[in-house]
Design brief:
This is EF-hand domain-containing protein. Its main location: cytoplasm. The chain is mostly helical. Among the domains are: 108 residues, no CATH class; 137 residues, Orthogonal Bundle (Recoverin, domain 1), CATH 1.10.238.10; 62 residues. It is built from 19 helices and six strands. The strands form three sheets. It has a two-stranded antiparallel sheet with strand order 1-2. The longest helix is centred in the C-terminal third of the chain and has 101 residues. It is elongated and about 155 Å long.
Length: 552
């Protein structure tokens, strides 16, 4: 019974599940459904393109963390902000925020000083007034580089506003110069071609222009048709269900209640893709970015009524109720509205010609300087090579002299010494002869003794060997004081001015070769005098004469 009831209820359960699965979903209008608002954290601010963009964004981010200042910022009109009324609210900001702002300012001042130092190094290290250079950065008070005050915030707001207003103008000027330079290069390229090639190039250029102009219709930026196309292509919604408020919330990417410039430029991507493609030769991506900038400026001029460079929800809804939103005029693209005129192109070519002339003149001057430096370098190299050659020659001459002439010089010196020594020996022999002759005349007693005793005389002759003539041992007459001379560890007394005469030659001493000396023969009753002194024995001749050759 129980099993029968279970089998009866199972088909009912299966059928109910099948109806639930196969049921048609109910269409829900997303535009009329109110979704709960979620509090999203504000992402980092977008890049403004200013050179102090990081400093600006960090200051704004820290100021918005203060509740009081954030309320004043959203409730203050742009004109009041430009006049500096918002900057006075800095005095009511919390202490921790002010401390962080002081630190940010010190970092920015150090960054600017680093840039100035780098510029100084590039320009050659000339002395610069750093304070005067810092004054050109008008977005901060450089007289107080340590703390962030009300004047700093006021300067930052005014400088950022002015720079952002001129930022688009500067970009337009850069694009105009880019277009004129591109046209100038094309003309210069045609000048270098012959007639036939020039015609082919002109024909190819016209074909590319026609291809670029052949594109789908471009909707007026910010119009209903343009926004509905974004609604359909990007958001995937039905154009018939277009709702401006929902569209605004869908494209407020950071959820701050405003559509900024970057969020607004993203709305024109689909329109730009109709005209430009990175894969086509006739399309220039630089022109595409200029077209995007023109569209954004046009929408901002029509929608941004308070000129704060932000589109609020109220401003956007008001613009959708205008007649221009429903029935806009046609949009002129860049090919329909050229970036420059013929007069501007002519003036630009004249400037290029002048710049080219200046560059050529500078190139000639640099070439002359290069040649002069090369010539000076060649002279230095020649002088260096000549100096090295002189040094090498000098070294070779020294080596040659030492190798060849020094032994010869030593030999000549030895020969001269030998000759002088030989001459001295010869003079010594002649002196001994004179001595013997004079002794026989002046000392007859001495010769008489030898004649009376011939055996003793023969014995003396055989035992004695005549010594060389030694005038320093001569007996001299009393005279001036004598000098002392030391030679080879032998002290010899010499007269101050020795004079050898016939009277003194007979007084010379003949010293024996042997170590034993005998008394010299003297006159009877008179002691011999040697070198001004008295001696009882004959003096010895310790060394040959050539050892004392340097004395003469």
């Amino acid at each position: 019974m129980l099993w029968s009831k279970a089998f009866c209820r199972c088909p009912v359960l299966v059928l109910s599940l099948w109806f639930c699965v196969e049921a048609v979903p109910i269409a829900v209008d997303k535009t009329k459904v109110e979704t709960p608002e979620q509090e999203l954290e504000a992402p980092q601010s977008v890049d403004t393109g200013l050179h102090y963009d990081r400093y600006l964004r960090e200051v704004i981010d820290f100021l918005e963390k203060d509740q009081h200042f954030r309320e004043k910022l959203h409730n203050t009109d742009m004109e009041d902000i430009k006049q500096g009324k918002l900057a006075k609210e800095l005095d009511f900001v919390g202490h921790h925020v002010r401390t962080k702002l002081d630190e940010l300012k010190r970092q920015e001042v150090n960054r600017l000083r680093t840039l100035i130092k780098a510029k100084q190094d590039v320009e050659g290290g000339h002395e610069m007034n750093h304070k005067a250079l810092l004054m050109q950065f008008e977005y901060m008070n450089h007289m107080n580089p340590h703390t962030f005050e009300v004047e700093d915030l006021d300067k930052l707001i005014k400088s950022a506003t002015s720079d952002l207003e001129n930022y688009d103008k500067d970009r337009h000027e850069e694009f105009k110069r880019y277009e004129m330079m591109k046209e100038h290069k094309r003309k210069e390229h045609l000048k270098n071609l012959d007639e036939e090639q020039r015609k082919d190039e002109e024909q190819h250029y016209e074909e590319l222009r026609k291809k670029h102009a052949n594109h789908p219709k471009i909707n007026h930026p910010g119009s209903q048709d343009q926004l509905k196309e974004v609604w359909k292509e990007s958001d995937g919604l039905d154009p018939n269900d277009f709702d401006p408020k929902t569209f605004f919330k869908l494209h407020d990417n950071n959820g701050d209640g405003y559509i900024d410039q970057q969020e607004l430029e993203a709305l024109f991507t689909k329109e730009l893709e109709k005209m430009y493609s990175p894969n086509l030769e006739e399309d220039d991506m630089t022109e595409m970015e200029e077209e995007r900038l023109r569209m954004r400026e046009h929408v901002m001029n029509e929608v941004d009524t308070n000129k704060d460079r932000l589109v609020s929800l109220d401003e956007f809804l008001i613009s959708t109720n205008k007649k221009e939103f429903q029935e806009p005029d046609s949009w002129e693209t860049l090919e329909q509205a050229p970036a420059y005129t013929d007069e501007e192109m002519k003036l630009f070519e004249e400037q290029l010609a002048q710049e080219e002339s200046n560059l050529k003149q500078k190139n000639v001057e640099l070439q002359k300087q290069k040649e002069e430096l090369e010539r000076q370098q060649e002279q230095l190299d020649a002088q260096k090579a000549e100096l090295q050659q002189h040094i090498l020659s000098y070294n070779l001459s020294i080596v040659f002299f030492l190798y060849f002439f020094y032994p010869l010089f030593c030999g000549i010196q030895l020969l001269v010494v030998t000759i002088l020594s030989h001459r001295k020996n010869s003079r010594t022999g002649s002196g001994e002869t004179v001595d013997s002759h004079d002794s026989s005349e002046t000392q007859p007693n001495h010769l008489t003794q030898r004649a009376s005793n011939p055996e003793a005389s023969r014995t003396n002759v055989s035992e004695e060997t005549p010594c060389t003539w030694q005038p320093w041992l001569a007996r001299t007459e009393p005279g001036p004081p004598q000098e002392s001379l030391v030679r080879d560890e032998t002290r010899i007394s010499l007269p101050a001015k020795p004079s050898l005469t016939r009277t003194t030659l007979g007084q010379l001493c003949i010293a024996p070769r042997t170590s034993q000396s005998r008394p010299a023969a003297t006159e009877p009753g008179r002691e011999p005098r040697v070198s001004g002194g008295t001696a009882s024995a004959a003096l010895q001749c310790p060394r040959p004469l050539h050892h004392l050759g340097g004395l003469f």
